[in-house]
Design brief:
single chain, alpha+beta, four-stranded mixed sheet, 8 helices, 26% strand, elongated
Amino acid sequence: MVPSGEVVRTTAKNIHYTGILLLGQHYSESPLTHKQMKNNGERPLYLVEDAHEPIISKEQFEAVQQEFERRRVISTRWNSSVYPFTRKIVCKHCGTNYRRGRTGKYPFWGCGKATLERKAACPKSVPLDEESLMKTCASVLGTGEFDPDVFKANVDRIEVEDRDHLHFHFKDGSKKTVELQNIWRKTYSNERKKQASAYQRDRDNVRKLGKEKPFSRVIKCSTCGGNFHSFERKYLDGSKERFWRCEHPGEVTIRNSDLEKISCEVLNMEEFDAGQFDESIKSIHVIGKTLKFEFRDGAVTYRHYNKEVKKPCRKSQ
């Protein structure tokens, strides 16, 4: 089996394969929480030479590190002018640089380990919206708008613990911890509320006009709490019939025509009227073979449904 490129890169960057052990790379934050933290100089590191038989010689390891550094410089030369946050944002949990991604038309920055491998590789990492990140940097640096040149000249790196703790490390040695100024949190919430309200009004208006199936989102399953969904059956004579059922196994299947007849009985209607039904009935809960009608004024009535729905006939071979 040929190892993947990622396995080779990981092996080439791990000093342990040279027979040297680097101890103390992680430490426990507290004896109470036992939270593991990456050691970025807060605690001493211990180097143990000739701890075991090496797989890679020290000369090869040093040569590979020099090649990695040469390629990093070339990559930085090409990309730093495009994205000012490249190699500037570091995940505090795993030490990996953040990478730029895109969700639709909105760019974001996420932990490289979680992005390239999987979320489970760094479960505590959080993605950052680029516009919110720019606004936060502008606020920290005291500029009205985000200035890439000012950012590069003053900020050495940003360590991301979570959205409430962005640790800015400046080139003069000072540090500052701030909260991400999420520009989408309030705007998105209000916008979504308006869209949801408008959508609900449109749905209600369509139902009142009778252009939509009047039992949609009205029939509830008492077992799983979900809505009943409609489907059609086509018979050999070309006729069609609509039914309602829940995806939960074992639930009763109800004919649409029977629902209309029972609703007429409950509401004292000679013929089924979708508008009157919508104004009067809030929901219908299916409890076994019992239909519980809940009115909008709070009243409740029950009806029994025991008609068996047979499978459609198939043509004989």
